């Protein structure tokens, strides 16, 4: 059992499991509708990189390890660690000479997207990207219906600010109206750059 500490001092425990050699060689079927949003985006980013369309990577989370045990000479188990910084957004990179920065979130809710899935520091980061002329958005997935949308950060920030008036979520109808549906295919799995082209270029 490993313990991670967020910058606010809260503890998060996680079970660290050693990956078997067979799991690292697991075949992935991109026709599988059950893949997570992160898997879909990572596969798509690999395709964009291989085809020289864009350089977009998942941001690493900086972690400071403070307690490690060595039950075997060849194995180390992290028992306690701290997240050094609160995370901003999931992905960033360069596309057609523009800086691109986005967050990816999923919900099992069928009719709305809960605002509690986001954090204030993430919204501030998105606003800074917009202020400096970068491309900033979120990719929202309704996992029950396997629908994904690109939603500009400016719209998300507007809904976020309405929380003071009691808003708790973004209605799916608003996401369909203000956002843009992303096609799910084979290569790339989630062709979000096609939408970026139509919205920002």
From TrEMBL:
It comes from Fictibacillus nanhaiensis. Signal peptide: none annotated. The gene is recU. Keywords: Cytoplasm, DNA damage, DNA recombination, DNA repair, Endonuclease, Hydrolase, Magnesium, Metal-binding, Nuclease. It is found in: Cytoplasm. Endonuclease that resolves Holliday junction intermediates in genetic recombination. Cleaves mobile four-strand junctions by introducing symmetrical nicks in paired strands. Promotes annealing of linear ssDNA with homologous dsDNA. Required for DNA repair, homologous recombination and chromosome segregation. The keyword DNA damage applies. Its main location: cytoplasm. It catalyses: Endonucleolytic cleavage at a junction such as a reciprocal single-stranded crossover between two homologous DNA duplexes (Holliday junction). Coiled coil: none annotated. This is Holliday junction resolvase RecU. InterPro entries: Resolv_RecU (IPR004612), Restrct_endonuc-II-like (IPR011335), tRNA_endonuc-like_dom_sf (IPR011856). The keyword Cytoplasm applies. Belongs to the RecU family. The record marks 105 as: Transition state stabilizer.
